[in-house]
Amino acid sequence: MTKENRLDPQTAYLQAAPAQYINEKGILKKAGTYVSEWGGRVLISGGVRALNAAEKDLIASLDENNIYWEKNIFKGEVSQSNINIIKEKAKKMKANLIIGVGGGKAIDTAKAAAEDMRLPVAAVPTIAATCAAGSAFAVVYTEDGQFEKDYFMTQNPRLVMVDPQIIAEAPAKYLKSGILDSLAKWYEGKAVESGIANPSLETVVAMNLAEILYNKMREEAIIAVEQCENNELGDELKEIIDLNIYLTTIIQSLGQNTSRGAAAHGIHNGMTSIEESHDLLHGLKVGYGIIVQLYLEDKAEEYIDDVIKFFNELGLEPSFKGLGIPFTEDNFKKTAAKSVNDTVMLKMPIEVTEEMIIEAMKKVESRV
Fold first, then answer.
1. C-alpha distances in angstroms, 71 versus 81, 110, 111, 114, 353?
2. CA distance linking residue 342 with residue 293, whole number of Å
3. Which residues pair with 72 in a beta bridge?
4. Pairing mode, if any, of strands 137-141 and 147-152?
5. Would 108 disulfide with which of 72, 138, 256, 285, CB 3.0-4.6 Å?
């Protein structure tokens, strides 16, 4: 008998972190040993470039451990149609584990398919642009790239295998994007927390961890980016990878009431209504959203100046002009209209209107 009334994963489960998380150079050569703990029939889903970077060692290790595997080439968005493709292939081959390989889109799609099928999922991130590899959460888009819904899951990926050398050899723009997305946990979390009279223990812990993340980012992010730009695997880069993927996952998991988005991600979601934004990395749009949020909060100019200076050092010019998005009244209105009633925007401790969003965006643009 099919169970029609399921618990809401967003509130009924307190996720924490992946059951296994390994950040180790050459880890994929031992992948089969780890994967065998979770399944013996595996569907691997990833983009072409990601699979080129990871599949040789991954597949060789699966073969050594007598794990049957098939492969799906992922293309496009985290859309329902792509989720369905993975589900159909996994069902046909009787998979008992799905492995997502690549960036946030490939991994989120694999996670969503596995959640629908109640299968465990493993992640092999080849970039550190988001916390997708560790989180119990995905963002689903329409086929043409517009934000559609947040998908909360019952559990984090069971296994995350990070080879930091692969990430060190990937374009540094992805690492920068991940840093900005991670920092949103601090800025958004502080905003939401300010409106909570008696924060729960989980909220307090999440915000303490977010402060650690923020301080570590200010100390090490620039050095880590330089290492990535030179394809060097230094201690700072290895730690920033952990911050982007692992610690951000824990903050988001524990911070159910604070760290799962606010205005910055609301602005990101609103920007997806602009076609020219679709090719921009998630973290760049979130970084822009952080600055808009600071204006919505009426933060001091000196404070905003310091944030923008840091973002500039990370390679982000937080403005429509800096992002290459047409600077038009229509685009401001589209963004404001789509973001104003977004679920995460409604978490702000103040009532936000379309007019307030447009005014804040114009203040950001006036700085250019």
1. 17, 12, 15, 15, 46
2. 14
3. 45
4. antiparallel
5. 138
Strand partners of residue 159: 20, 122
- Residue 75 burial (CB < 10 Å; 0-12/13-18/19+)? exposed
Instruction: Provide the strand spans (E) within 142-256.
Output: 147-152, 159-162
DSSP secondary structure, 206-218, as one string? HHHHHHHHHHHHH
Residue 169 makes CB contacts below 8 A (sequence gap 6+) with 53, 231
Q: Which two tokens stand for residue 101?
A: 């390989």
The per-residue pLDDT for 307 is 97
Pairing mode, strands 147-152 and 68-73? unpaired
**Average confidence (pLDDT) over 214-224:** 98
Q: How far apart are CA 313 and CA 323, in angstroms?
A: 15
Largest Cα–Cα separation, the chain: 60
36 pLDDT higher than 50: yes
Amino acid at 265: H
Three-state secondary-structure class, residue 74: coil
Where are the strands (E) in the chain, listed by range? 20-23, 41-46, 68-73, 97-102, 121-125, 137-141, 147-152, 159-162
> Residues with Cβ < 8 Å from 302, sequence gap 6 or more?
none
Residue 1 pLDDT more than 50?
Answer: no
Is the pLDDT score of 227 beyond 60? yes
The 10 Å Cβ neighbour count of residue 91 is 13
User: What are the angstrom distances between the C-alpha of 247 and each of 18, 114, 308?
Assistant: 11, 23, 23
Burial class from Cβ neighbours inside 10 Å (0-12, 13-18, 19+) for residue 26 reads exposed
| Residue 244 near residue 21, CB atoms below 8 Å | no
Q: Which amino acid is at 288?
A: Y
- Which single residue is written with the structure tokens 């946030």? 104
Question: Which strand ranges, in their side-by-side order, compose the sheet holding 68-73?
Answer: 20-23, 159-162, 121-125, 97-102, 41-46, 68-73
